[in-house]
């Protein structure tokens, strides 16, 4: 429609509104789709006119446009259905069920079954779930239809999540309905945050505050300017904000664009857990709780604070009352590291601190915590300082920063990411909160305003705004933005003494736990938008014998240490769920900490102990690690004893217990001292080096897998239209695999929850479904007229698994992963895209490698190329971002590596691969790059070699070459914990290497997974991908269109054992240096 026609429509809308032709004006708004009247929509929702609500909304977005529109329509229809049941109108309920709700069964069959079963309930009422509530609301937050819940205080509906919101709760009518203007994506302009948050969370001069990312492509909930045909607002009419027809360029695209994971959603909707989306999960309380005591660790001094590693989830960091820190591998019960308190540089500390240390050298740890990626950890001490260590796997811990942070004690410590930069937040007895640069230690902010020592800090973000909650010993809770404008709120904490705060894992719910000076403890949930307590949990001892600590897990449970036990609550029920005493031996108020997935719980015990509690998944994990340790001990017994000192032996034994690739450390015993230079107390570890043995039968042998019975492998259901898999990836949630075939078709396999697969994660034990939406459409890329076999396929998946960006030689396509619909296409060739990568901190920025050797940095929100990087001479074949170093590493078919700074996109370094001596470099060979978990080292994959490089200096640390006569490498990848490298070869073998030294530990031969009728000369693995949470699971895509998932046997628990290093070798680098000639290193 021309701008003149659009202007005419706006004038007519204005006239109709002024003349009070209400029905006509809303009809024209809906039919034209130019203006979404938020007030009218809100009024209709408040009045419960659901038919009109849906009719009006359908003029702007359809049910299957995206997952947010789907959830909005689901809520509207569900509300109609519940009201029909409430009025005992069964026939209407059935009609709604069949006509309106059936469409959603495809995406959540279990929920649809629950809804259907409501028809069988007699005397149905919306109040049946909460007749015993203290403050029952007419429309309660219903998470599931068959579990009783408890209403909080009136108007206590929580705000939706800023990220991956599963849209919890139902849609209340007048009285309980959250103001849509505050939370919806349906506003043409940035919306205010609900008061009192509006008073402090808005900062228009420095923080852009749309409810969602508006503008051109929208991976996330598009705003109404994006999703609802780009209405715009003129300055002329005071009564109705109708847009003008010729305002800015917003409408130059009518497609919805604007990629974000920080999505704020319009209404609270029943928890419809769509597969692969959001954090909603189904749990069978209390069986999911870690209640079984599996380990007791002897720390040597009393644990004060504990934290599990965010990725290696059996790695436990501990700080004690005498200033010691320790690192435990709870699977093996071994302490990898023990450090006594020591000031690294006393001369750099303040004079008051130096004087205080001389007077009283006693120091306690107040807090230990890992950074979000597990590359750093911090310790807050009871005296002035904070120490930050960098972690490099195993027992490799290095001093990173020491900060003289506060006068008196440092009471708490947290990591945060304001302005895309990792920071350390501290608080202390000097009544201040301080923010420090985690890379340099430079102080960035000091927040003053508390009138008592600051006890805890809780950084968070909501609606693109970063902020920090802090609590002080006078019971005051304050909130701060990253500026110098002072506190934004001033709440009173229950108990008014020691209070800590925590969000649920998905960031939607805020809790605090506190103990008063009189010993009265409480856990409460807060309504952030009102600064009021929403619910108070019951079940504490009348007088707690210490300060109670708490933790949250799985967006579902709360736990606290009280009365010589651990107490658990369901977040939606104030009554105590269960109590566990961990077989006794707990102090009055034990310290507690869940690991990331909630399978393990660390609890401080009497006599300087730590107990590890586990649920079913945790028990399985620990037993798998036990098997690994047993195998490791057998390996070390088989080794010839080198001449080393006792300290080296102790260090080596400690190193045998890293979290997943446990056995790998047996191969680097001598190397540990030489690499780390860190002598340890013999009492800290259990040496495992056996007496010298010349038993030839125990000499290490490569693990060869030749039979299907020697591992777990699963061939996924095939699609007859696909004949070659070109790209392969697991979804980030770990419950699906996405493939791109050479003919531009995408395939998606999803695993469902079942009795055999309670987690719903990908596994080689259960067959997945080759999934398609009910429409039956396929995700198919745009292709050019030229031969598709010559095209270079590429794709990248958004962090929340909602969208995939993909190309097969033609235009780049953006697909909705739930509906398979093409949302948009852009960048027609030439040049054609050959590699795609999302920026780790901004989903609106993608790096696009091209077949003309350039790299384009493209902002999808504004549809603009921001930078064009030139440095390669052939097509781009690999891109990888490091959010720690703020660099992009690129690789090309020219066998060249380049490092680019992501701030200004300047080239920092470049280097060509070192090819084996005597090898003729191939004319065109893909070079892939992938960052290690530490975000500093990266894997390089080329048909002639595997290599590990360090990104800052672009130095090659290790290389591995196949023999001259061996088949070329087709692809390789790190395992999710970066302890292993999985590599596929064109002779159909798959090899597993230890990532630390690129030593081969296991080889899977074609006979183990290809049928006898298939010749390995005709079928080769072309791509390989690793599961995002299971370190020993990977999948390969084959040249015949097949995809196979591999896992080791449950009895083995891992892929082979690493070889021992040669006698007398003092470094594990020498054995794998460039041109290594041992058979082990050469396949």
From TrEMBL:
Residues 1063-1076 have a biased composition (Polar residues). SMART domains: CTLH, LisH, WD40. Residues 34-92 form the CTLH domain. InterPro entries: CTLH_C (IPR006595), LisH (IPR006594), Quino_amine_DH_bsu (IPR011044), Quinoprotein_ADH-like_sf (IPR011047), Topless_fam (IPR027728), TPL_SMU1_LisH-like (IPR054532), TPR1-like_2nd (IPR054080), WD40/YVTN_repeat-like_dom_sf (IPR015943). GO terms for biological process: primary shoot apical meristem specification; regulation of DNA-templated transcription. SUPFAM superfamilies: Quinoprotein alcohol dehydrogenase-like, TolB, C-terminal domain, YVTN repeat-like/Quinoprotein amine dehydrogenase. Residues 230-251, 1053-1083 are annotated as: Disordered. It holds the Pfam family WD40. Its EC number is 2.4.2.-. One of its GO terms (molecular function) is glycosyltransferase activity. PROSITE patterns: CTLH, LISH, WD_REPEATS_1, WD_REPEATS_2, WD_REPEATS_REGION. WD repeats lie at residues 403-446, 548-579, 869-910. The keyword Transit peptide does not apply. Keywords: Glycosyltransferase, Repeat, Repressor, Transferase, WD repeat. PANTHER family: TOPLESS-LIKE PROTEIN, TOPLESS-RELATED PROTEIN 1-RELATED. This is Vegetative incompatibility protein HET-E-1. It comes from Cajanus cajan.
